[in-house]
């Protein structure tokens, strides 16, 4: 009996210490208890080279991350948090030049401009460029690997944005 009381007390102490400064989740998100909603705008593609599906894939990945890994309600109206921005660059460049000056590998790089506004804790606000890339073989036809590359790069970008916005390590 005494062990179960100590065990219960220990669990309660741990629970209260984890919620003392905000709401924590197993994903690392740390939000003030009064933050309940987020508005994520559609990220238009303003890059010189426009890939038609990129805006939708990226915006959906961003929304999915915040909905699945926080308790925030996604809204199109007024919110406690706002994420907005645009895709500013989409480029393919040769890397790993080999003999004969041909590229053995190519790199797809995507850059997004993000503005994050926290109405409850304005000190958390930021405006920043995020960039990520994925390399692919010169032997790969871009049209056959582009969809997969966009999904992978979008996930890297979403990780960085999510961590910057709501993970306060």
User: Unreliable runs, pLDDT <50, ≥5 residues?
Assistant: 12-27
- Helical amount among residues, as a percent range? 25-40%
Per CATH, which architecture? Answer: 2-Layer Sandwich
CATH 4th-level superfamily:
Lipoprotein like domain
Give the helix/strand layout.
Layout lengths: L1 H17 L4 E2 L5 E2 L5 E4 L3 E2 L8 H16 L3 E2 L6 E18 L3 E17 L7 E12 L4 H25 L3
Parallel strand pairs: 3-5, 3-6, 4-6
Antiparallel strand pairs: 1-2, 6-7, 7-8
Helix pairs in contact: 2-3
Structural features, described:
This protein has helices spanning 2-18, 54-69, 142-166, and strands at residues 23-24, 30-31, 37-40, 44-45, 73-74, 81-98, 102-118, 126-137. It has 169 residues and is α/β, with parallel strands linked by helices. The protein has a single domain (35-166), classed as 2-Layer Sandwich (Double Stranded RNA Binding Domain), CATH 3.30.160. Strands 3, 4, 5, 6, 7 and 8 form a 6-stranded mixed sheet that branches. The chain has a two-stranded antiparallel sheet with strand order 1-2. Strand 7 and strand 8 (126-137) form a beta hairpin. Helix 2 (54-69) runs parallel beside helix 3 (142-166). Residues 12-27 have low confidence and may be disordered.
